[in-house]
Amino acid sequence: MGRLGAGIGWRPEIADAVERLPGLDWVEVVAENVCPGHLPEALLRLRERGTKIVPHGVSLGLGGADRPDPAKLTALGERAVALGAPLVTEHIAFVRTTSPVLEAGHLLPVPRTRDALDVLCENVRIAQDALPVPLALENIAALFSWPGEEMTEGQFLTELVERTSVRLLVDVANLHTNRVNRGEDPAAVLDAIPLEALAYVHVAGGIERDGVWHDTHAHPVPPVVLDLLAELRSRVDPPGVLLERDDDFPAEAELASELAAIRAVVTPGAGTEEDSPARARESVAGQDGGPASTAGAADDGARTRVALGQAALLSALVAGTPVPEGFDRARIRVQARALAAKRADVVAKLAPELPVILGGRGPYREAFLTYAKGRPMTAGYRRDALDFAEHLLVRDLPADLAARRRLTSWWRERSGARPPHPLVRWARALTGRAA
Fold first, then answer.
1. For residue 110, which phi and psi values (nearest 5 degrees)?
2. For 313-363, how does the pLDDT look when each residue is reduced to its tens digit (9 = 90+)?
3. Could you give the CA distance from residue 112 to residue 110 in angstroms, rounded to a whole number?
4. CA distances from 398 to 358, 376, 392, 393 (A)
């Protein structure tokens, strides 16, 4: 795989600035946001000048109870080939359930139990067999913990690597998030995990509100996260470090300054001889990304137990069902509000006409959050935008006739169908259907 160096998350909003950043070695792109046959010109220019590009997936849900979707694996592999990527990355998380069919629209933590680890390891091996390049997995940020966990984060990640040879993408901002939100010691995690499996490192900003750290990727990297990067660097020379920024993008000079600060922390020579960074690099370079173990597949009982737990939790988060026993109810409420807010924000970004039609950000957000309370997301965000518009039209909303006509036109152009006949709308309302 070789060394990656210092990089930044590529986003369309900062594409021009990224091209001009001094000393940029590589970029990471959200895999689901690019099409192999129609790569953005800015990405093509980076690839042509030799800048490495790594696709970073967010929708596989390898920690979910179901086996990975072959179509999603194929799509991720196609992006790796199109970008000439040395590896692909994903998350140790679940994002959906299939019974009932629910989408979180967000990365949610898996329980650190034997059942969940067995399921995750089998899912990882399936992904490794399907992908054309090595796979690395990222530790995620979480607002809450699962009850009845059987392993620490370090134990869970170590056994995952031992059983699959998967590489690790260590996000030091997420380590800080979990210190604040779950009381976990980042240094203990770094001491426990096999840093010889390190593929690269994420660094990002966030903000604390009411004792909860929100991993926003929309704020400057705080000193406490840079301190954790230095902690990691004292143990290993990371093959790559990447700055993530997904929203509220700063001026180009500020991006360059943040990248320079990160680069200064990981400059070779900052570690000590006994840390043996060379040994770690050699170990990572020697991996082929294939499974290290032929341990058996997760049995059906393990998948069933994981599925039941995840379905109960996700239903509580997005469908208003009771919070499962043992969870911190206050934290689950915080997470539920965060999921609904993110859902509203993403739909507004994908369909910017909707806030305009509805009279601005405030009225749009109020209408969307009301809709979201009774309508869990069952498909992607684009489908959610159409369902939201139809939800309003079924109820003869918005009240302003001109706005309703504009919304009808918007919906019709994208759905390829006419809004429901009044009798159909009446029947749906009578049966409690919102679509």
1. -95, 150
2. 999 999 999 999 999 999 999 999 999 999 999 999 999 999 999 999 999
3. 6
4. 7, 21, 7, 7
Supply the DSSP string of 385-425, one letter for each residue.
HHHHHHHHHHTT-SSSHHHHHHHHHHHHHHHSSPPPPHHHH
Q: Would you call the peptide bond into 100 cis, given omega within 30 degrees of 0 as the criterion?
A: yes
For residue 390, give both structure tokens.
């139809």
CB 194 within 8 A of CB 247: no
Region 69-95 average pLDDT: 97
Look at residues 262, 278, 126, 316 and name the one whose alpha carbon lies nearest to residue 195: 278
pLDDT tier at 420, thresholds 50, 70, 90? low
Q: Using the Cα atoms of residue 195, residue 196, residue 197 and residue 200 in order, give the sign of their dihedral.
A: positive
Write out pLDDT tens, residues 388-401: 999 999 999 999 99
CA 20 from chain center: how many Å? 27
pTM reported for the whole predicted model? 0.88
Residue with tokens 């770094």: 190
The answer to whether the CB of 5 falls within 8 A of the CB of 50 is no
pLDDT given at position 283 = 38
